[in-house]
Amino acid sequence: MKSKVLNQGPERTIALIFDKGDEVISTLQRFAREHSLTASRFSAIGALERAVLGYFDWERKDYDRLPVDDQVEVLSLNGDIALDGSEPKVHAHAVLGRRDGSCVGGHVLEAFVRPTLEVLLIESPGYLRKTCDRDSGLALIDLSA
C-alpha cells in the first residue's frame, strides 16, 4: 500500500492506494496504529479477488460469515477508525458488485485486493472512542467518552 497526504487541515486527507493481494482491514489497522489515528472516516472504490463479509446475528452476538469467493467490484466501502481503549479500531461495511450485476453487502471481515483499492481517509481533529455495548457485545462509538 502506498499513501500520500493530500491536505493537512483542519481535517487531514490521506490517499491510500492498495496493491494486488493486500488485505484491506489488517492493512488499514496497521496504518491507523502507525499513524496514531484516533478519529477518522474513509471511503473507497476498487476491486477484490475475494472477501468475507459479516451479518451480525443478534441472538448469538456474533457475525455470520458470508464468503465472497469471486472477483468483485467495490461499489462502496465506507468506515471509520475510532479508539477502542487505547488502540485504533477499523470498522467497515461494503457493497460488492458481481459480474452479473447482483450485489452482496455487509460488515467487512476480510477483503483481498485485485487489482487495486483507492481509499480516501479523512482524519478529524477530535477523538472518537468505542466502548463495549452490553446489549450487543460490540464496541460502539460512545460520544460521551
Q: Please provide the count of β strands.
A: 9
Order of helices and strands: EEHEEEEEEE
How would you name the oligomeric state of the polypeptide chains in this document?
single chain
Q: How big a fraction of the residues is strand?
A: over 45%
Assign the CATH topology: 60s Ribosomal Protein L30, Chain: A
Q: For the CA atoms, what is the radius of gyration?
A: 15 Å
CATH superfamily: Hypothetical protein, similar to alpha- acetolactate decarboxylase, domain 2
What report would you give on this structure?
GO terms for molecular function: DNA binding. The model has no long low-confidence stretch (mean pLDDT 94). The chain contains one helix and nine strands, in the order E-E-H-E-E-E-E-E-E-E. Strands 1, 2, 3, 4, 5, 6, 7, 8 and 9 form a nine-stranded mixed beta sheet that branches. Helices cover 8% and strands 63% of the residues. With 145 residues, the chain is mainly β. The protein has a single domain, classed as 60s Ribosomal Protein L30, Chain: A (2-Layer Sandwich), CATH 3.30.1330.80.
Task: Give a quick precis of the structure.
By secondary structure, this protein is mostly beta strands. The protein contains one helix and nine strands; from the N terminus they run ββαβββββββ.
